[in-house]
Amino acid sequence: MHYFADTEFDAPTRSLISLALVPLEGASLYLADPEVMKRDNIDPWVKEHVLPIVDVEGYTPQYMTPDEMRKSLETYFQGEKGIVVHVDWPIDMTYLSELLITGPGTMIDIPSIVFQLHRVEPYPVKRENDYVQHNALCDALALREAL
After folding, report:
1. Largest CB tally within 10 Å, which of 42, 56, 100, 127?
2. 58-103 tens-digit pLDDT
3. DSSP bridge pairs for 63
């Protein structure tokens, strides 16, 4: 199954803010960490351009801790074989990969996963919906349309 992923993060603190996975067909997964969003030391650009749009009408995440995100990912991928995740930026692979790790030498139960990095600009895309750039779910949807 093919998925299109995007993450929003605070680079200076290496903190994941939100993650979205959009399949070719079926339900999307959109997760956000509310604790990261409350921090005072978030990059000013992220405070201005990302945090206000993590939750916008029609694009509302499930708020949870990183450990809860791991469990949610495992449930989301349960039974999938041949998982292919498409991204448009290398750090998206990093943050998603880090969520696959559950502890020293352990990871969530998935048979395999392949990442494909595409050098594309998902905006502007021809679309019926008005996506909000820098909202992880909107960006993942735009990437799916661009590819």
Report:
1. 42
2. 899 999 999 999 999 999 999 998 999 999 999 999 999 999 999 9
3. 32
Pairing mode of beta strands 15-23, 2-10: antiparallel
Question: Kind of pairing, strands 62-63 and 83-87?
Answer: unpaired
126 pLDDT more than 70? no
Query: Quick check: 32 and 18 in contact, CB under 8 A?
Result: yes
24 contacts: CB under 8 Å, gap ≥ 6? 1, 2, 3, 144
The answer to whether the beta carbons of residues 22 and 1 sit under 8 Å apart is no
Alpha-carbon 142 to chain mean position: 13
What is the spatial distance between Cα 17 and Cα 139, in angstroms, rounded to a whole number? 14
Backbone angles phi, psi at 72, to 5 degrees: -65, -40
- In this structure, the number of other CB atoms found within 10 A of the CB of residue 114 comes to 10
- The residue type found at 93 is M
- Report helix, strand or coil for 72: helix
Amino acid at 114: V
